[in-house]
Design goal:
By secondary structure, this protein is α+β, with helices and mostly antiparallel strands. The chain is 39% helix and 24% strand. It has helices at 2-17, 20-52, 112-120, 125-133, 138-145, 164-178, 208-221, 252-260, 267-271, 322-340; strands at residues 60-66, 69-80, 90-101, 104-109, 146-149, 152-153, 182-188, 195-201, 231-235, 244-249, 295-297, 304-310, 313-318. A hairpin with a 6-residue loop joins β7 and β8 (195-201). The radius of gyration is 30 Å and the shape is globular. The chain starts with a helix and ends in a 15-residue tail after the last helix.
């Protein structure tokens, strides 16, 4: 009887000391993080595939994740002693434990003003150079986000042929980034809250790569002094003067449309008229090759960064394609950057406090 009483007492002690709150942080934080990231990536790829087939994109944001846990324990102990010769000492015990998990996840569709602001508004030129300053590849960033810079467009408007001067400008910015000769300065206006962004170029005479890159920018962008004292970055499709860099940036919808055009769809879908033919790109033509390759397969890919199933096929980004992976990650960051600027209009969440 004594052993039984001690055992039940230990059970009550353990149940009373158990603290479930801190123990759930490690599990929840990383598992919810991974789940939200995977769902974001799959949603992005799903919309790209939908646009490839002429469908409209739909975005649904996770506005909040609230996890509630409950643990109820109870124990009962009854003991009796018989005085008769035929009676036995009796000890009876029992216990009950109830564990509950009730996560509350809310979603908010991107529509109306949010849709226009997040997807249709061109990227702020200031943010383009902020991303480059943060370490993102200058050539990839500018190629993905720009339509033109100081009037130098990516394509010839008449023939739609690639403009070699545009890519020479991108290469020059990449050289300056690699040589740590590209800097950014921000100044707040005296009469306005607007923050002005200036790009300055460090001229090093003994470094021929820097000298050549600055010469390319001065020639193609028509800069007056090579940017040594700072050239202001503004939004615009045309050349303004030698003291500014006018950038016509793309919107998220522009980037998705351009990227979706290079998804390699099954040939039978092209023959059935479901979508347009795949674009052909020469293997040795580095500049015309897309930054993001999305493949299709009738079987689920075994080694994919992200994959979704649509129209009886699997569409995926190969985990071994590092350039496509970096471009897709960059696109995800741009998407989140534009979404973060908007006021959260998600639904209110009501959670019962219980007793």
């Amino acid at each position: 009887m004594i052993r039984s009483v001690v055992l039940i007492g230990l059970c009550l002690l353990v149940g009373g000391c158990l603290n479930i709150g801190p123990n759930t942080i490690l599990r929840d934080r990383f598992e919810y993080n991974r789940a939200i990231r995977d769902s974001w990536e799959e949603q992005m790829l799903t919309n790209m595939v939908a646009m490839r087939y002429g469908e409209s994109p739909v975005f649904l944001n996770v506005t909040s994740v609230i996890a509630q846990y409950g643990l109820e324990t109870s124990a009962e102990l009854r003991a009796g002693y018989q005085t008769s010769f035929t009676g036995d000492d009796t000890v009876q015990g029992g216990g009950r434990a109830v564990w509950s998990e009730r996560p509350t996840i809310t979603y908010s569709p991107v529509e109306g003003q949010d849709f226009a602001a997040n997807l249709l508004t061109p990227i702020n030129p200031d943010e383009v150079f902020s991303l480059i300053e943060a370490g993102w590849n200058a050539e990839r960033s500018l190629r993905l986000l720009l339509k033109s810079i100081n009037g130098v467009g990516a394509y010839d408007p008449a023939t739609r042929q690639l403009n070699p001067h545009f890519f020479e400008v991108l290469d020059a910015f990449k050289v300056l980034q690699d040589e740590e000769a590209l800097g950014i300065r921000r100044e707040k206006g005296e009469d306005t809250d607007r923050v002005r962004t200036f790009v300055y170029l460090r001229d090093v005479d003994e470094n021929p790569a820097i000298v050549q890159a600055i010469g390319t920018l001065m020639s193609h962008l028509r800069l007056s002094d090579g940017g040594g004292e700072g050239v202001e970055v503004v939004f615009g499709p045309y050349f303004r003067d030698g003291r500014t860099i006018a950038m016509q940036t793309m919107s998220i919808m522009d980037i998705l449309t351009e990227s979706a055009a290079y998804i390699l769809v099954p040939e039978e879908h092209v023959q059935e008229g479901r979508t347009r033919a795949n674009r052909t790109v020469a293997e040795d033509d580095h500049r015309s090759r897309p930054l993001l390759w999305v493949y299709s397969s009738p079987e689920k890919p075994e080694d994919a960064l992200v994959s979704i199933q649509s129209r009886g096929f699997w569409y995926y980004i190969d985990d071994r394609d590092i350039d496509s992976k970096k471009t897709f990650s960059f696109l995800m960051i741009i998407m989140q950057l534009t979404a973060a600027q908007q006021v959260n209009r998600g639904p209110a969440v009501t959670i019962g406090a219980g007793n």
